[in-house]
């Protein structure tokens, strides 16, 4: 018996083993082990502490401020919120931070922010047309919170600043506890010491004097953009709610005065910036929740922004930073002649030096700016053996470390900041 013929056109079953897949550039083939990237240890951030009643009050205050004013950033809104709360514990602080509310033009929301602050800070004292004598006679061991609107009318020009030098001195001295002014009082002219320590908010167009800005949490306001909306501020309707919130914040804070005075928080900044921001960070630590983290983030970012802004201003740290760029671009020579240094400074189209004065920055103005940092020109030797006036690089090393330590993108070599 013949075996049955296979079905016509039948084909054998494919083998069970699969063919190797076609390789795709940049991808492993099937069946091949996936390459594993080295796993880097990622440090898990510590969880936020449990919030307290103070955390909820700060959240409520933040929402109230945002209802009436658009701040330039979430960090600025956090900073203003913490500053307001800190006014209710002024006897605990070693330093009384200023709040500098500045903007480039009118209608940036500066006065409206001051309206909200007036109804939420501790014992507000408006100082419009108030004499310095009246101010320091109003400061006691339980100091008020000074509020100065239109500060540009006080310090806006050299003539105004000179006329109001006593007010500037009061604001500078009042940043630190135990700084007094002595005045004679009464018909017998008896010398009397007056306290100056008090927190203060100043609003105005343009920057305030450097000595005040250096002691301030700086809020750089700007005009509302199209589509940004705020609620109109109406005294009769809005002040009662703000006063109720103010009183609840004070009731929460006052029992914590001794604890606040003893705290020494870890700060993300140093020196005067740390002194200024410390009360805000302590308030955040007392409130707990997300506030300690947000306070330190606001501190670090806003202080860094002010350092960068300072470097962008003519003179001061700006001239040091630009000279450092010149030395780096010239491959770190031991010295540069004054003419070569001026030429390189004026070549930067984004710097102010080409338009400084009538013909750009000159040797006399450069020497005057650098003299503030104890840097003076001297004789430098050229490759051909001759000598000309110029500047030695090693004279800049210490001022660079102190006034502009941030390494700029052009500073590609560590030698830019090394010591000789």
Automatic annotation (TrEMBL):
Span of domain DUF3631: 220-403
Positions of region (Disordered): 1-54
UniProt feature, compositional bias: Pro residues: 1-18
Compositionally biased residues, Low complexity: 32-45
Pfam family, one: DUF3631
Designated name of the protein: DUF3631 domain-containing protein
UniProt source species: Streptomyces filipinensis
Species classification: Bacteria, Bacillati, Actinomycetota, Actinomycetes, Kitasatosporales
């Amino acid at each position: 018996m013949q075996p049955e013929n296979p079905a016509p056109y039948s084909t054998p079953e494919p083998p069970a083993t699969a063919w190797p897949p076609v390789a795709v550039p940049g991808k492993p083939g099937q069946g091949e082990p996936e390459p594993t990237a080295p796993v880097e240890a990622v440090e898990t951030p510590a969880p936020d502490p449990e919030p307290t009643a103070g955390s909820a009050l700060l959240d409520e205050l933040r929402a109230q401020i945002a209802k009436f004013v658009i701040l330039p950033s979430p960090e600025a809104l956090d900073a203003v919120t913490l500053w307001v709360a800190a006014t209710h514990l002024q006897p605990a602080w070693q330093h009384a931070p200023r709040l500098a509310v500045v903007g480039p033009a009118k209608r940036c929301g500066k006065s409206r922010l001051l309206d909200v602050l007036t109804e939420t800070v501790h014992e507000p004292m408006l100082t419009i047309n108030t004499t310095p004598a009246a101010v320091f006679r109003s400061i006691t061991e339980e100091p008020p919170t000074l509020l100065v609107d239109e500060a540009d009318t006080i310090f806006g020009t050299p003539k105004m600043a000179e006329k109001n030098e006593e007010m500037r001195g009061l604001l500078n001295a009042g940043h630190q506890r135990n700084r007094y002014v002595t005045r004679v009082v009464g018909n017998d002219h008896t010398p009397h010491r007056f306290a100056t320590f008090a927190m203060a908010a100043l609003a105005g167009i343009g920057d305030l004097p450097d000595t005040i800005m250096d002691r301030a949490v700086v809020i750089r306001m700007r005009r509302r953009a199209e589509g940004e909306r705020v609620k109109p501020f109406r005294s009769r309707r809005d002040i009662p709610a703000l006063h109720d919130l103010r009183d609840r914040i004070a009731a929460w804070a006052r029992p914590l005065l001794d604890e606040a005075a003893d705290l020494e928080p870890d700060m993300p900044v140093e020196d005067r910036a740390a002194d200024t921001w410390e009360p805000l960070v302590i308030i955040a630590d007392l409130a707990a929740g997300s506030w300690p983290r947000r306070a330190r983030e606001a501190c670090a970012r806003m202080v860094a922004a002010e350092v960068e802004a300072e470097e962008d201003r003519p003179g001061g740290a700006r001239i040091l930073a630009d000279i450092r760029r010149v030395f780096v671009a010239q491959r770190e020579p031991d010295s540069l002649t004054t003419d070569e240094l001026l030429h390189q400074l004026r070549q930067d189209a984004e710097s102010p030096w080409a338009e400084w004065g009538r013909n750009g920055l000159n040797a006399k103005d450069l020497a005057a700016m650098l003299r503030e940092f104890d840097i003076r020109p001297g004789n430098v030797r050229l490759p051909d053996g001759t000598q000309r006036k110029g500047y030695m690089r090693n004279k800049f090393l210490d001022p660079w470390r102190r006034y502009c330590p941030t390494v700029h993108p052009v500073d590609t070599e560590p030698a830019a900041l090394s010591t000789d």
